[in-house]
Every structure is written in structure tokens, then in C-alpha cells.
Amino acid sequence: MSFFALGVNHQTASVELREQVAFNPEKLTQLLAEQSQNHDLNDMVVVSTCNRTEVYAMSDNADMVMNWLAQANGIDVKQLFNHVYRYENAQAVTHLMRVASGLDSLMLGEPQILGQVKSALSLAKDAHTVSPSLNRIFEYAFYAAKRVRSETAVGSHAVSMGYAVAQLALQVFSKPEKLTVMVVAAGEMNSLVAKHLAEMGVGKVLICNRTAARAETLAQEIAHRVDVEIIDFSALAENLYRADVISSCTGSLHQVISYADVKIALKKRRYQQMLLVDLAVPRDIEPKVKSLDGVYLYGVDDLQSVIDDNLAQRRQAAVEAEVMVNQLATELLTQQKVKKAGSTIHAYREQGEVFRQEELALAMTRMANGENAEQVLQEFSHRLTQKLLHPTSILLREAAKVEDPAYFEMLQEGLQEVVAKRRKAKH
């Protein structure tokens, strides 16, 4: 039984193909529940995100896994063939660790993927398609991801606009729990800004948007983390003074926050500092605002240069992370080999005990029948020794026949070391 990782991602397949092989949780739950009854392939976890769909499985046949992926999505397996990557055993373990650590992501070091992999494992467990062996591999991958996060800098630098704004706010203001944040427009970019800042523990988020529906959608998404208030777009200027951090990204052809508006807001705030971030092109905030004392104004170009520098730092840190992942994958595989050897050793010891009891019973019977005790014990020890050494002798003879002498030499050196230790112990 081998461990396989098989799938498509942003590097190997187009958006159209990734859409075809993607699973939503409801569909995947049903498919895995059905698969749990299939004795040929019932030990598997499926990770499906916008950038990848991957099947991790314990199986005797990788083609069986790929056929399942094609059939589950109603597409021809030939269509998948040129876009699917597959890894087995050591390579599969390393790949899973790289995915969980964010080293294989479109955005290097992204933290969301670890949660997505954990959710995939949980869903598969609920469907009863995860054996203890497969679970052990995933748990070790989570351990590897944690080590990468805590011991390297691969995820510590902002490489998205939304995250960069949140990090900037924490640099300007030391106590996030006291901050009031205003997002002007509730589009994709500002939604990310609001979510990141909510996760970082800001006190309140004001959402100012032209349409109430979109503002309410964002409010619902973050209300469980932070106090939220929706402001009508027409009331933007009169509410500026309430915000410590303002992120604007309207897509308007005209500036929506003027120098005069900010000057009035500063006066109402008694000149407490403000951070304004203009993510719009054309710009939303009058550039002259930057000249006001106590105001920090950043634009897209300012943030992009920070992101470029941070991405370069992440790439440097990724080299260290890759080495760590390879070492941890080797550790896991070594543990698996030792565990497998342990079961073999246990079985060998049990067989040795059977031999001992057989020979002891025979010796006791012979002595009870009046045979010479010394002669019986001599034969008992000889017969037991022959039985115990017979498997080792066969193993050494077979090893000597192998073209590569290294295997035989390893066994020979090991036995010689055991003998030497025994002799030393006697003296």
C-alpha cells in the first residue's frame, strides 16, 4: 500500500479545468460517503480550493485514484492526463507538507491553506475515509507547517494589499483594540482590509458604501469578530473624524476625500493622528492631504514597493523552509520504517517464544521419562539455537547473493557488533 498525492493546481491547469475538477463541500461529503464502502479505494482526503484540487490516498494503484477524480467530476480521464501531477510515498509526503506550509501556493506563504487542508481532513474523517496511517501523515504535515510558520519568516511579511494595510495600521498605532477603522467602498480589496483588521482585533469597523446591500454583506462576514456600523456614502465627510484608519478604494473618477474634509476631521479629533490609505486608481484622496500634520497618507505605489520587498524576503525564507520540510518528511518516513520493523521484530520474538516452549516441553518430558538430564539439556540448547538462528542464516545467504554488497556488509557488521558487545559484557 502506497501513499499518493495526485491533482491539479494553478501551475498545471487552466482556470476552466480547475473549475471542472473542483468540489464543493456538499458534493464532496456525498462522494466520500459513497467511497467509504469501496474496498479498493476508501482511504482518502480531498483538498479542493480555488487554486488546486488534490486527492491524497493510501492505495495500491495511482491510476485508480486518477480515474476516481475524473469520474467524480464527469470528465474524460484523458483530459486530465496532461495536467495532473502525481507523487508517491516520500515525494507525496513532502508535497503535502509544502502545501500545508504555503510553499506551493500562488501567493507564497499564504496562511489560509493550512486551515483549508485541516477542513479537508475533518470532512474526510466525518465520511470515514481516513485510516490511522493516513491521519498520521496529515497530522505530521500540520506539525511541519507549524514549524515552518514559527521558525522561518516565510509567512511573516505582508504580500497582499489587504494584509499590507492591516500591518501598516499596527505599525502606526500600538493598540489595535482601541482603533476605529473606516473602509470607503466594500469591494474585494477593502473587504480583505476589513477582514484582516477584524482578525487583528480592532475596536470598530465603519463601512461606507454607495449600495447598502454590499455593505451589509461585508458587515455580516466580520460582525462575529468586531463591532460594525454601516454609514451612508453621503455622510462620508462628516464621519471622517471618527476613524483612526481610513482605507478607500471606490473606483470613482473623482476624488471622494478632500484636503478640506480631512483638515476639519483633524480639528474635531483634536489633532490625534490618522492613517489614510488610498488603494484606488484614479486616486480617491486628494494628495495634498499628506501635508497635514498628524496624517499618514499611503498610495498603491507606496504599498506595492513594500509588498515587493516583503515578497523577496519570503522567497529567501522559503529556501530555509524547504530544507526544513525535507528533513521533517525524512523523519516521518524513518519513523514509519521503524514502526514497521517493530512489528516484524515482535512477530520474530513471539515465534522464538513458541520454539522455546516446544523445546522445553520436549526436554521436560524426556527427563520425566528418566533420560540423562545433562544430555537432554545439551540437546535442548542445540535444537533451540538451530531453530532461532535458521532465519538469520537464510537472510545472510540471500543477502550475499545480491549484486550490491552493501546490504550484506551492513548485516555482517551489525552481527559482529552484537557479538563484540556480548563478549565485552562477559568480561
Topology readout:
Blueprint: E1 2-9, H1 15-21, H2 25-35, E2 44-48, E3 52-59, H3 62-72, H4 77-81, E4 85-88, H5 90-100, H6 112-126, H7 132-151, H8 161-172, E5 180-184, H9 188-199, E6 204-209, H10 212-222, E7 227-232, H11 236-239, E8 245-248, H12 259-268, E9 274-278, E10 295-299, H13 300-368, H14 373-401, H15 406-426
Parallel strand pairs: 5-6, 5-8, 6-7, 8-9, 9-10
Antiparallel strand pairs: 1-3, 1-4, 2-3
Helix pairs in contact: 5-7, 5-13, 7-13, 8-9, 13-14
Mean of residue pLDDT? 88
What portion of the residues fall into strands of 2 or more residues?
5-15%
What general outline do the C-alpha atoms trace? elongated
Order of helices and strands: EHHEEHHEHHHHEHEHEHEHEEHHH
CATH class of the largest domain: Alpha Beta
Tally the helices: what do you get? 15
Q: Give the count of structural domains.
A: 3
| CATH fold description of the largest domain | Beta Polymerase, domain 2
- In total, the number of strands is 10
How far is it from the N-terminal to the C-terminal residue, by CA?
47 Å
State the strand order across the main sheet.
7-6-5-8-9-10
Q: Structural class, from helix and strand content? A: alpha/beta
EC number: 1.2.1.70
Keywords: NADP, Oxidoreductase, Porphyrin biosynthesis
Domain Tetrapyrrole biosynthesis glutamyl-tRNA reductase dimerisation: 320-413
Pathway: Porphyrin-containing compound metabolism; protoporphyrin-IX biosynthesis; 5-aminolevulinate from L-glutamyl-tRNA(Glu): step 1/2
